[in-house]
Amino acid sequence: MAFISSGYNPEKPMENRITDIGPREYKEFLPPIIEKNFGKWVYHEIVEPGMLMHKAESGDEVYTVRCGGARLMSVTHIREICDIADKFCDGHLRFTTRNNIEFMVDSLEKAQELKKYLNDQKFSGGSHKYPVGGTGAGVTNIVHTQGWVHCHTPATDASGTVKATMDTVFDEFQNMRLPAPVRISMACCLNMCGAVHCSDIAILGIHRKPPMVDHKVLDNICEVPLAVAACPTGAIRPTKVEIDGKSYKTVAVKEERCMFCGNCYTMCPAMPLSDKEGDGVALMVGGKISNRITKPAFSKVVVPFIPNEPPRWPTMTKVIKQILDAYAEDARKYERLGDWANRIGWERFFEKCGLEFTEHLIDDFRDPAYYTWRQTTQFKF
Amino acid sequence: MAKHKTPLLDQLESGPWPSFVSDIKQECENRAKNEKGVEFQIPADCPEDLLGVLELSYVDGETHWKHGGIVGVFGYGGGVIGRYCDQPEMFPGVAHFHTIRVNQPSGKYYTTEFLRQLCDLWEFRGSGLTNMHGATGDIVFIGTTTPQLEEIFYELTHNLNTDLGGSGSNLRTPATCLGMSRCEYACYDTQALCFNLTNEYQDELHRPAFPYKFKFKFDGCPNGCVASIARSDFSVIGTWRDEIRIDQEAVAGYVGGELAPNAGAHAGRDWGKFDIQKEVIDLCPSECMSYEDGKLSIDNKECVRCMHCINTMPRALRIGNDRGASIFVGAKAPILDGAQMGSLLVPFVKVDAGNDYQEIKDIVEGIWDLWMEEGKNRERLGETMKRMGFQKIIESAGVPVDVRQVQEPRTNPYIFWKAEDVEGGWDRDIAEYRKRHQQ
Ligand code: HEM
Ligand code: HEM
Ligand code: HEM
Ligand code: SF4
Ligand code: SF4
Ligand code: SF4
Ligand code: SF4
C-alpha cells in the first residue's frame, strides 16, 4: 500500500489550491431529449408501476423507469448502474429525492425492455438489484440515515430497519393500489436527519435511559455551558464531584427531568447514553409535505417504544404492516394517512390499527402541549 | 473467505429489497481480487471491517463509533465528518472512517462518465462505499483516512471540477426537485436557482460563520418533491397568480373515461369510474370549482393553488402563466424546542434570472444579517423567529407585512407597540398624572 500523491504538496498546502468552485452545472449532464424539451412539458402519465411518460410541446416523449436503490451502495454497484445507462440510455441517469434511480429512454418498447432487464438482476443472496416501482399510490423508497454504519448518536440501525421494512412492504413498492402515496422515513435518533417529522409513517430511534456522566474527563473534553444549554428540559446543571479525594468540575443530570434525547451527548462526549435494552424505536404517522387538499402536517407518535430486534426487527415491521393495511382498507381515494386519521378521529385510528394508547403519547412538552389535548365535547366512544 | 463471521447481517441478504449487505460483500470480494491492480490507499479490507463492526453493533445493540471527530481540508471549515471506530484493534480497517460530502449537481442528473470518474477516485483513495445521496443532497463518500483527505480534495477540484458540500454551522448544500427538466408543474427553473445560489454563497457554505446550520431547498410547485417546507430553513416553492388553464376537451376525456385520473397513479385497484364531482369538485379545499353542463369552471380568485385538481387531471388543467414563488422560513427538526415547518414570509416573488435573482438574494441576506447578529449559539433560524417574533424577520427581510403570513390573527391581546407609534411617546411624569388623579 504505497502512498501515491495526487499532486498535492503537503509542504506548501495553499499552493495550487482550488476552492469555491461548487458543484458541476446540471446542464452538463442532462440527456439530450431533456435538454431539448426543458421547461416545455405538457403532461405526464404513469404507464405502469415504475414507469412514467412525459410529453413535450414538441411531441417528444421521454419514458422514465424508476427502480429502488439501497442508498448505501458500493462503487461496484454504481458502475453496474452505469453499465445499464450506457447500454440503454446513452450514458445518462439520475437519482431521485428519495434515493431511487431513474433511467430515461425515448420509446415505450425500450422502457419495457429496460424494465424487464432491471427486474431480472439479482444479488448472489437473492435480493433484487434494481426492483422497478416507486410511482403513484404505493410505497416508495424509505428516506433514512446513518445508523450503526457511521454515526455515534444512534439508538437503532438505519440500513437494517429499512431493509427489513421494505422487504415487508415490497408488494406496495411494485403496485399502486393504496388510496394515496405512503411515504415511510427513518431516523436513528431524534436529530431526525431526513424526513421523519413529516412522513406518513416514520421509524425513529429512541433512548430510555439518562446519560451516564464520565466525571473524571468531562471538564477536559466538554464545554460545560454548551452541555447545559443543550438540554431542552433544563435537566443539566454544572457541579463538582469528589472522586478518590480529587475534585472534578462536571455536570449533574436531574434524571426525572431527562427524556433521553441525547442532545447533551451530541455536545459532550463524556455523556454517552446508548444501551441495548433501553434503546429501540418509536413509530410516528400522519405527516405530509405536499399542500394537496390539506396543509402539510407533522407526523405524530402512535407507538412509544418497540425494542431493537436485529437483524430483522419483526415486531416493528409487523406493526408497520398493521397500520398500512388498516389505512389501505379504510381510507378514501386521495386521502393521505394523516387525512384519514383526522377524518375518522384519532380514537378511531387506534382502534382500527389495533394499537394501544398509553400515557407516553400525550404531549407534555411546554406550552404547545395544551393545544394537543381535547378542548371539545366532540369525541367518539 | 470473509474476514469476519456475520451471521446476523447474513440474514439481511434474503428478501426482495436490494440488500446493502450483499452489495458490501461484493465490494469486499472485488477489493480482495483487485483485478485491475489498484494501489489501494486505505486498507483493502476496509469494507470487511465495516461489516465486522456492524455485526458487533447488531450483537451489542449499540453503536461502535467514537464521539465526533474534527478533520477537514485547509481553507474550509467543513465538508468532512470525522469518525473513528471504538474497537480499532479488532477492526483496523475502519480505525479511521471519515465521510466526505461531495456537492451534487442540481436535480441529480449524471453522465456515466462522471460517475465512473468518481468511482475510480473513491475506490483508489477510500472504502469504495457511498450514500447516493445524503438527505441534504450530497454525494456521500463513506470511509477514508485522514492523510487521504487533501489528496481526494485535490483530485476532486483539479480533475473532476467538483467541490465539497457543507457541514457545520454554515450554509449546507442546497438541493432541488427536478423542476422544469422533466415536470410540467414547475413554476420556475428550480435547478438554475439552486445552482446560482450555491455558487453565490460558496464562502458561507465552506467557512462556518453562522450561529448554526442553515439550509436552502427549492420546490417547483406546492407538491414539494424535495420537501423544502419541512427540511430547509429557507424554502422556495413555485406558484402562479393568474388562472389555471383549462382544456375543456380534455376534461371531457376524463369524464368520458378515456384519460386515467391522476395520470394512472391509482391503477392498481378498482376505484370505480372517475367521478369528477366526487374526486375533484368536492375535494377542492376552497370549494371554488364547479362542473355544470359538461363545463368545468374555477373561481381562480378563491383558489389556494393546492395542486389537487391539476394533479388529478394533468392533461386538462395546467398551472397559470404568471409564475413565481413563495418563500417560507424556519423549518427544522425537533432539537431544541420542537419541530417546525417553514412559515410563509413572502407570498409571491418573481424568480428572475435576468437580474441574477437579486430580489431573492436581498431577502436571504436581510435574514442572515439579523440572525448572524442576534441568533444565539446553536439556535436555528426557526428558533430565533420564535424567540424574537416573526415581526423581526419580516422587518429584517425587508418585506411588507401581509395577512397571508398568518394562519389566523393572534387570540391574546399581549400586543407590543413601539413608543414612536403611540401619540405622546412613553416619557410621562407621575406628578402630572397626580394632578388629575389623587393618590
Ligand atoms: C451527531 C452527528 C450527526 C451526524 C453524523 C449527522 C449526519 C447527517 C447526514 C450524513 C446527513 C445528510 C447530509 C447530506 O446529505 O449532506 C444529515 C442530515 C440532517 N441532519 Fe444530521 N447528523 C448529525 C447531527 C445532527 C443534529 C445535531 C441535527 C439537528 C439537531 C441534525 C439534523 C439533520 C437534519 C434535519 C438533516 C436533514 C436535512 C434535510 O432533510 O435535508 N443532524 N445528518
Ligand atoms: C409531473 C409530475 C411529477 C414529477 C415529475 C414528480 C417527480 C418526483 C420525483 C422524481 C420524486 C422522487 C420520487 C421517489 O424517489 O420516490 C418525487 C417525490 C415526491 N413527490 Fe413528486 N412528482 C410529480 C408529481 C407529484 C405529485 C402530483 C405529488 C403530490 C400529490 C408529488 C409529491 C411528491 C412528494 C411529497 C415527494 C416526496 C418528497 C419526500 O418525501 O422526500 N409529486 N416527485
Ligand atoms: C382590578 C382588576 C379587576 C377587577 C376589579 C375585575 C373585576 C371583575 C368582575 C367584577 C368580574 C365579574 C363580572 C361579571 O359580573 O360577570 C370579572 C370577570 C372577569 N375578569 Fe376581571 N377584574 C379585574 C382584573 C382582571 C384581569 C387582570 C383579568 C385577566 C387577565 C380579568 C379577567 C376576567 C375575566 C376573564 C372575567 C370573566 C370571568 C368569566 O368567564 O365569567 N379580570 N372581573
Ligand atoms: S438521525 Fe441521529 S443518529 Fe441518525 S445519522 Fe442523524 S444524528 Fe446520527
Ligand atoms: S438526554 Fe436530553 S433531556 Fe436528558 S439530560 Fe441530555 S439533553 Fe437533557
Ligand atoms: S415539486 Fe412540483 S415542480 Fe417539482 S418535481 Fe414535484 S411536482 Fe414537479
Ligand atoms: S388548485 Fe386546489 S384550491 Fe385551486 S381549484 Fe384546484 S383543487 Fe381547488
Automatic annotation (TrEMBL), chain A:
GO molecular function per UniProt: 4 iron, 4 sulfur cluster binding; dissimilatory sulfite reductase (NADH) activity; electron transfer activity; heme binding; metal ion binding; sulfite reductase (ferredoxin) activity; sulfite reductase activity
GO cellular component: sulfite reductase complex (NADPH)
Gene3D superfamilies, sorted: 3.30.70.20, 3.30.70.3340, Sulfite Reductase Hemoprotein, domain 1 (3.30.413.10)
Sorted UniProt keywords: 4Fe-4S, Iron, Iron-sulfur, Metal-binding, Oxidoreductase
PROSITE patterns (UniProt xref): 4FE4S_FER_1 (PS00198), 4FE4S_FER_2 (PS51379)
InterPro entries: 4Fe4S_Fe-S-bd, 4Fe4S_Fe_S_CS, DsrB, NiRdtase/SiRdtase_haem-b_fer, Nit/Sulf_reduc_fer-like_dom_sf, NO2/SO3_Rdtase_4Fe4S_dom, NO2/SO3_Rdtase_4Fe4S_prot, NO2/SO3_Rdtase_4Fe4S_sf
SUPFAM superfamilies per UniProt: 4Fe-4S ferredoxins, Nitrite and sulphite reductase 4Fe-4S domain-like, Nitrite/Sulfite reductase N-terminal domain-like
Cofactor field: [4Fe-4S] cluster; siroheme
Coiled-coil intervals, chain numbering: none
GO biological process annotation, one example: sulfate assimilation
Keyword match Metal-binding: yes
4Fe-4S ferredoxin-type domain boundaries: 249-278
Protein name (Swiss-Prot/TrEMBL): Sulfite reductase beta subunit
UniProtKB/TrEMBL annotation, chain B:
Gene3D superfamilies, per the entry: 3.30.70.20, 3.30.70.2500, 6.10.140.1420, Sulfite Reductase Hemoprotein, domain 1 (3.30.413.10)
GO cellular component, one term: sulfite reductase complex (NADPH)
InterPro entries: 4Fe4S_Fe-S-bd, DsrA, Nit/Sulf_reduc_fer-like_dom_sf, NO2/SO3_Rdtase_4Fe4S_dom, NO2/SO3_Rdtase_4Fe4S_prot, NO2/SO3_Rdtase_4Fe4S_sf
Annotated ranges, domain 4Fe-4S ferredoxin-type: 294-322
Residues annotated as transmembrane: none
MF terms in GO: 4 iron, 4 sulfur cluster binding; dissimilatory sulfite reductase (NADH) activity; heme binding; metal ion binding; sulfite reductase (ferredoxin) activity; sulfite reductase activity
Keywords: 4Fe-4S, Iron, Iron-sulfur, Metal-binding
GO biological process assignments: sulfate assimilation
Protein name: Dissimilatory sulfite reductase alpha subunit
